[in-house]
Amino acid sequence: MRQLNPFIAVVMVLAFALAAEAGPVVVTDAAGHKTEFPQAVNRVICSGSGCLRLLTYLQAEPLAVAVDDIESRTRKFDARPYALANPQFKEMPTFGEFRGHDNPELILTLEPQPQVIFKTYAFSMGYNPVELQDKTGIPVVALSYGDLGKLRPQLYQSMRTMGEVLGKGQRAEEVIAFFETQIKELEQRTTDIPEKDRPTVFIGGVAFKGPHGYQSTEPAYPPFQFIHANNLAYDTGLSGKELRHSDVSKEKIIEWNPDYLFLDLYTLQLGDKASGLAELRTDPAYRTLSAVKEGKVYGLLPYNGYSKNYGSILANAFYIGKLLYPDRFQDVDPAAKADAIYSFLVGKPVFKTMNDIFGGLAYQPVPVN
After folding, report:
1. Opening angle at CA 145, ends 143 and 149, nearest 5
2. Distance (Å, rounded) from C-alpha 104 to C-alpha 83?
3. What is the pLDDT of residues 173-228, one digit of tens each?
4. Which of 63, 145, 332, 348 could form a disulfide with 120 if both were Cys (CB 3.0 to 4.6 A apart)?
5. How many CB atoms lie within 10 A of CB 94?
6. DSSP for residue 249
7. Same fold? 24-178, 196-357
8. What is the pTM of this model?
9. pLDDT by residue (tens digit) across 321-334?
10. Distance, CA of 314 to CA of 303 (rounded, Å)
């Protein structure tokens, strides 16, 4: 029998000893609950808006043993790059309804059984995570979905928590570093542009728990912030409060008369008569806007699609930067940049697929005349 090299034998013994000594992993989730996990977690489910997106970012989507029912739906407009890159989600078993409305009985019938349930928006929508854990006997880890603005630390902590449970800590740090690098690059390209040279902008048609018309916006829209654009909706009397999705009155948009208008293409789900695009084409008030008259209306990939699309947010920022400040983004091809972002985050270049879904209107002037 061939003998093992003594040095290798010692290394193996030490490795086994360290593994045994390391013991289980203990994590504290967004709700402050501490949970203990075995070292090898390889079967999970993701409940709540955006949760499966985070799992995909960590390259851990093969660990999912089931999905919520939004993944099995076939819809004309799909704004979720993580789902487009993983069509196998449509064929997987379901464990409950979307937005966290889990079914404990269904979960208990899954084969194989998940070892952990990750849950976003745990206490604001859907099944109560404490009750879910009690009924299934499966640990539930609450995660804050965060954003790329003020809640960025919460997003990063959630990725680190998920990574720690799954042994994907290094990948979590890589994703965090990727976000930081992209945001820093955008800011460095534009930070010294004088205030007087920053065009005024507005984005309408932003989805929030479904599609909306043109008055729907994000006052703190991250792409505008990253490139220092003059977002007229940023100050809408919400000083001192958390800036989040809101509807701006049509009269206010007309009063502002922004230099550039942007259309979140998710609004197209409302159809040819009710979408934000239909409003820009037919509403006499919007027809008075200079940007409408001059053809300065541009299509952007959806900000939300089962919560915030972080890859699309970054891709949109590079496109808007190239449009507003072409001399600062001469080396950027927005479509290629989008695919580089998607390839890193979800494993596939899906820009063309998404653009085709939304009629080829992404990163183009939208015909409104």
Report:
1. 140
2. 24
3. 999 999 999 999 999 999 999 999 999 999 999 988 888 999 999 999 999 999 99
4. 145
5. 17
6. P
7. yes
8. 0.91
9. 999 999 999 999 99
10. 10
DSSP-H helix ranges across the chain: 6-22, 51-57, 81-84, 104-109, 129-136, 152-166, 169-190, 222-226, 250-256, 276-282, 290-293, 310-324, 334-346, 351-357
Q: Which DSSP symbol is given to 231?
A: E
Question: Would you say residue 7 has pLDDT above 50?
Answer: no
pLDDT value at 4 more than 50: no
Preceding omega of 93 cis (within 30 degrees of 0) = no
CATH architecture of 196-357: 3-Layer(aba) Sandwich (3.40)
Q: Where are the domains of the chain?
A: 24-178, 196-357
**Averaged pLDDT for residues 25-44:** 88
**Which among 276, 311, 298 has a CA at the least distance from the CA of 80?**
311
| 1 pLDDT above the threshold of 80 | no
Instruction: Say yes or no to pLDDT of 274 above 80.
Output: yes
Q: Please provide the distance, in angstroms rounded to a whole number, between the alpha carbons at the two ends of the chain.
A: 83
Q: pLDDT tens, 222-265?
A: 999 999 999 999 864 544 444 567 899 999 999 999 999 999 99
Residues forming a β-bridge with 297: 261
Residue with tokens 């967004």: 30
- With beta carbons less than 8 A apart as the criterion, state whether 123 and 132 touch: no
Q: Is the distance from CB of 257 to CB of 290 less than 8 angstroms?
A: yes
Superfamily of domain 24-178: Nitrogenase molybdenum iron protein domain (3.40.50.1980)
Query: Which residue is listed with tokens 């009690």?
Result: 134
Here the tokens at position 337 are: 């940049």
Environment class of 335 (CB within 10 Å of its CB; exposed 0-12, middle 13-18, buried 19+): middle
Summary count for the chain: helices (H), strands (E) = 14, 13
Helix (H, G, I), strand (E, B) or coil at 144: coil
CB atoms within 10 A of CB 200: 14
Q: 3-state class of 167 per DSSP?
A: coil
